[in-house]
Amino acid sequence: MRVLLLHPNYHSGGAEIAGNWPPAWAAYLAGALKQAGFTDVTFIDAMTNNLSDDQVRAVLAAEKPDLIGATAITPSIYKAERLLEIAKEVHPGAVTVLGGIHATFMYQQVLTEAPWIDVIVRGEGEAILVNLCRTIAEGRWPTDRATINGIAFTDREAGKIVATPSEAPIADLDTINPDWAILEWPKYQYIPMGVRVAIPNMARGCPFTCSFCSQWKFWRNYRVRDPIKVVDEIETLVRDHQVGFFILADEEPTIHRKKFVEFCEELERRKLPVLWGINTRVTDILRDEALLPLYRRAGLIHVSLGTEAAAQLKLERFNKETTIAQNKKAIDLLRRNGIVAEAQFIVGLENETAETLEETYRMALDWNPDMANWAMYTPWPFSDLFKELGDKVEIYDFEKYNFVTPIIKPEAMERSELLDRVMNNYRRFYLRKTFLHYPWIRDKTKRRYMLGCLKAFMKSGFERKFYDLGRVDYWGPQSKGKVDFKFDRNRVTVALPEDDDWEAAADKARKARKRKAARDETSVAMACGGGKEQLAEDHVAHGHD
To answer: Boundaries of each B12-binding domain copy (predicted)?
Structure first.
């Protein structure tokens, strides 16, 4: 049984300006397959190697796979569909498989527009892919496909799309052993540090249900690995693959305070030559004020905070139970402890104005984070907020759902003006940092890190890759009238996800009840961005929500 995994060649001018990110999904799936006895696994990273369709076709022609799998987030869905179309053309007898969050919830639309895809893997992929491979290897494909939990496929004889019952989440994440050796490590460089970068996983899922996010729905249960085993994995990455920087893939790794502290204590004990970063909640930083020196000693150098919006009204819309004052204090605490504080602003909703964008810039000056990021609001088609926005969503070209392209048109301005004002915020903010802040940071490690981040910004700027500026023809304020986002207007409708079988509604309702009960009884658990305490241990240690 030969398995070939493909990573689509998609670039947006967003996060990749900091370097080439290793596709961790391939390592986790390859590890699960090899544990199950499927050892003939090949991985092709078309994104990092910037492979054209013809180059992918040539690579595929040299292989003889039985199964060809790809993954896709929403903006890379068309690239992934095209990859699998090429795969089916080259190897018509191979089973083509697509996984990832977009395909999980939008399987009806994906299978309709890409009929060459044989299977959609819905949700956490390790167990499902192993079961699928067993079915194929034992000659039971496609006759027994309906017995495989967690997939969707087109039954052409019946003329309908079938989704099988969902596969249970992996109860014990410590049984997962990723095969990191499958990746081309010399190619995964983190520009700010000039070292190799990894994205390991300590937890999966999120116990909260932000209206703009679907991670809680995709992973279903919030589960945390043994911190010691996570550090073992990181030590392997450092020793065997010369990784010098990592970012935890978790949505918010500090949610489970006890395990995060254990993780940091073990990293400090081993003194591994590696720095790292996380995304987390403002209130967790406030909660852990006394622990921040430990986090820094453990190598934590960069924290991206979900401060989210300038106007408190927007914070409430996103279910973010934080305040402007809390955001400022959290940034100050991080900076005082030698940790890079990055403030995230979501812009580009329908009520955005020139004044609100200016307000975000003034807040950035007032809060004084080391870094600031203005992300265009991106309404995932499987999120609650997408449904709430209704006809305010007029662009269904998912390739542009990338945090850098204005999907929602503000009522008071054109999209080109929105982009121009966001760029103006970036120019002013980082110009000040370049001359008044970064060169004068006393902490040598932090100063080197910040100057490296500036290098990454400058490199992407000169190459016209930042914010996809080269492809949209933006060259500064004088060119905003000529900006062309190149939306595919032929994509005019979207089939909303049918997720009743996924029990998403039940999951959400159950979690909402638990949160309400926790608030009523202890006043500790809040929505994403809130939360005064750590989660109760019994809600995570045994795989419960």
So the answer is: 9-143
How do the domains of the chain map onto residue ranges?
3-163, 188-482
C-alpha–C-alpha distance, residues 465 and 471, integer Å: 8
What's the one-letter identity of residue 492? Answer: V
Angle, nearest 10°, between helix axes 24-35 and 125-137? 50
Q: Amino acid letter at 385? A: L
Beta bridge partners of 280: 305
C-beta of residue 67 within 8 angstroms of C-beta of residue 21: no
Question: How many Cβ atoms sit within 10 Å of the Cβ of residue 439?
Answer: 12
CB 28 within 8 A of CB 200: no
Beta strands in 81-215 (DSSP E): 95-99, 119-121, 151-155, 160-163, 189-190, 195-198, 203-204
Cα–Cα distance measured from residue 326 to residue 332, given in angstroms and rounded to the nearest whole number: 10
Q: At which residue do the structure tokens 């419960």 appear?
A: 544
Residue 315 pLDDT greater than 50, yes or no: no
Instruction: Say whether pLDDT at 193 is over 70.
Output: yes
How far from the centroid of its chain's Cα atoms is residue 110's Cα?
Answer: 20
* CA pair distance 341, 353, nearest whole angstrom: 26
Nearest to 107 by CA among 154, 172, 144: 154
Helix, strand or coil, per DSSP, at residue 342: strand
For 188-482, CATH gives: 3.80.30.20
Q: What pTM did the predictor assign?
A: 0.90
- 8 Å CB contact between 372 and 328: no
What's the mean pLDDT in 476-480? 89
DSSP bridge partners of 67: 3, 95
Q: What is the DSSP letter of 356?
A: H
Angstrom distance (rounded) from CA 491 to CA 209? 29
Do 248 and 227 touch, CB atoms closer than 8 A? no
> What architecture does CATH give domain 3-163?
3-Layer(aba) Sandwich (3.40)
pLDDT tens, position by position, 138-166: 999 999 999 999 999 999 999 999 999 99
- Model confidence at 533, pLDDT cuts 50, 70, 90, reads very low
